Amino acid sequence: MHILFLTDNFPPEVNAPASRTFEHCRAWVRDGQQVTVITGAPNFPKGRVFDGYRNRLWQSDTMAGIRVIRVWTYISANEGFAKRILDYLSFMISATLASLFVRRPDIVIGTSPQFFTACAAWAVATFKRKPFIFELRDLWPESIKAVGAMKDSAAIRFLERVEMFLYRRAARIVTVTHAFKETLARRGIDCSKIDVVTNGVDLTYFSPQAKDPALLAQLSLEGKFVAGYIGTHGLAHALDTLLDAADLLRRTPGGESIRLLLLGDGAHKSALVMRSKALALDNVIFLDSVTKTEVARYWSVLDVAVIHLRNTELFTTVIPSKLFECMGMGIPVLHGVKGESADIVRREQVGKVFEPENAGQLVADLLRLRADRALYDTLRANGPVAAQRYDRDVLARGMLAVLNEVVRA
Q: Per the CATH hierarchy, to which homologous superfamily does domain 2-200+392-408 belong?
């Protein structure tokens, strides 16, 4: 089977969509499938093309057996709604045109979060008379409203009509959460064409390891209890809560030995750094994004990982992919997200759940995990065991079974 996969994020970018797509496609190639990926020049999240790449009309290479075609896009940093829409639209047009020159695909996949990529996949599938699969990673444009980037308007309502059009035209929809499937069903989409393939973890890469002594020394973290957030610093993540917690820790008995490490980039990072300086938070460390090969090294220095999203109804339906990486690494999580992902944390007993945007509860849980060694060791040991149930290779085979079923129909 020849799979044509359209995605606007792909390695060497290190965000969740890039990792999921690459790891699935790599597994499919190992299974004997032919995979062509159409993407842009890597630039997320800073809006600067990575070293060794150029933003050109067409460039092709091979990565882990996957044919990767990179097309020109309007590149902007992950900030400013209008510029981001131009970025999305330019990729939709470039990817559609490039796809027309890909010979004999059997199936076409378009992945969100934003659905302009899915629009391109639908157009290509229609032209080539092949099935269109919508991989749904985010309820976009609902998430735009959830973070306050746009209020309900004629533009939002138009985007919602496009969204429903794509759901109805897809031969199958592959969602990353059961909550997404339930939401689509309530909106009138046939449940029989919706499959759930959750995010997972590459267990060959994310596994328990000792703290990196050189990194501990470099960051002056020897003898400290380190809580870390690794990921995008965006409006959706409400990371001011972590700064509020850091401020509380300075005034809380026992809190002086706890450090908060925030690694990543995003639209809200500069504001977070400025606020941290204004509060003189000497217990907070900001680090820029690192390459995929370096991420596990930074995970290793954490005693606990903080996962956090804004306290809004929409985010009860998402499962942050970093949860599974924490499981694989054996790092207990402090989970500030409600809903399906919180249920996983409780069921697998890999961390503690706290109320999103509640800095006081985050501080209390931090102090408890530092003090209660038996509880900490139990949560840490449960992670790698639970991670086996979210092995990315197993999940990729599950999605491949869906694709084969569609092609054979």
A: Glycogen Phosphorylase B; (3.40.50.2000)
